[in-house]
Amino acid sequence: MAPYFFRAFGLTVICDVPIPGLTPWSAGDPDVRLYAGCLPEWIGPTDETAREIWSAGGDPDHEADAVAVRAVGDGAFLLLAYGDGTRFVVSRSGHEVWASWPEGATLSAASTYLFGPVFGLLLRLRGLTCLHASVVVSGSGAVAVVGPAGAGKSTIAAAYALRGGHVIGDDIAVLTPSEGGWRVEPTVPSVRLWDDSVQLLLGNRDALPLMAPGWEKRQLDLTSVGRGFAASESVPLAAIYLLDARDARDAPGNNASPRRLSARDALMALVPNTYANVLLDASMRAAEFKVLTELVMRIPVWMISPPDGAVALEQLCALLERDGAVVQAAAHR
């Protein structure tokens, strides 16, 4: 059987089976080899009980949403063990990924992890800096909307797409250096949303399908709205909007104009908002800090309150789609 090629996160992926949600790509030299439905032959029971180097969400043996990360294969690989029985092995070189799932589950369900934390980790292992952000295109540049989980990044991206705008990424903004700045790589053509966001955007929380059976989040297919999704077209980063971490109800007017941050304040705000940073070693953290320092010296970073309700969301989307006017004005101050 001929292999399948895909494009995601600026990488060419090869796999022996179709991967739901990934954009098909022409054959070529792959960056990542994905083995679906199996783990490496050398993985054994002792690897499942190896010392954890990081965990989140509680006990993976009892909580479905928990995850434990273990170093295996003499430390050359990382095993991500999820509480529902889904397992991934990622090479520290960032060139190979194995995925397995329990009986009764599907590759589609496993892909909900794959397109988030697994690829996020793989990108960091490959030396790429990733912001915890959704990315829209304003004029000829990309605008990253940065913030912690639950801040409203995905809701903003979905609203932007539903207005006809171009969205190239949800949750992970992959930064690649280019002459004089950075470019943002397209991720996967969907936005993940909680029911309340779907209700706000479409008036019916059942208007979008679930990401996979048994999951609570729903997904908006970017190929069916807005300007579609171009997997090959990275976009120059023009600006970053940082969602204020304060509760919108406590903000002094959440429809206020964005506030330009100083380079120092922007750096301090971005450091905790990079993706998959919990597993970075000292050298990786130093490299990330260098990238972010250079980034804030060139790219304007704005603080803005999270939109509270449909009206504020509409106003923010209108701001983002002004063909970079705000960005250009800030760059010349």
Task: Give an overview of the whole structure.
By secondary structure, the chain is α+β, with helices and mostly antiparallel strands. It folds into two domains: 4-125, no CATH class; 129-331, Rossmann fold. The chain contains eight helices and 19 strands. The chain has helices at 45-48, 107-125, 153-162, 195-202, 263-270, 282-298, 310-320, 325-331, and strands at residues 4-8, 11-15, 23-24, 32-36, 52-56, 67-72, 77-82, 87-91, 96-100, 129-138, 141-146, 166-169, 172-178, 181-185, 190-193, 218-221, 235-243, 259-260, 301-304. The strands form three sheets. A nine-stranded mixed beta sheet has the order 3-1-2-4-9-8-7-6-5, covered by helices on one side. α5 (263-270) packs antiparallel against α6. The chain is globular. Residues 247-255 and 328-333 have low confidence and may be disordered.
Would you kindly provide a brief summary of this structure?
By secondary structure, the chain is α+β, with helices and mostly antiparallel strands. The chain is built from eight helices and 19 strands. The strands form three sheets. Strands 3-1-2-4-9-8-7-6-5 form a nine-stranded mixed β-sheet, covered by helices on one side.
Rg calculated over all Cα atoms = 20 Å
> Averaged pLDDT, please?
88
Query: Distance between the terminal alpha carbons, to the nearest Å?
Result: 58 Å
**Helix-strand makeup class:** alpha+beta
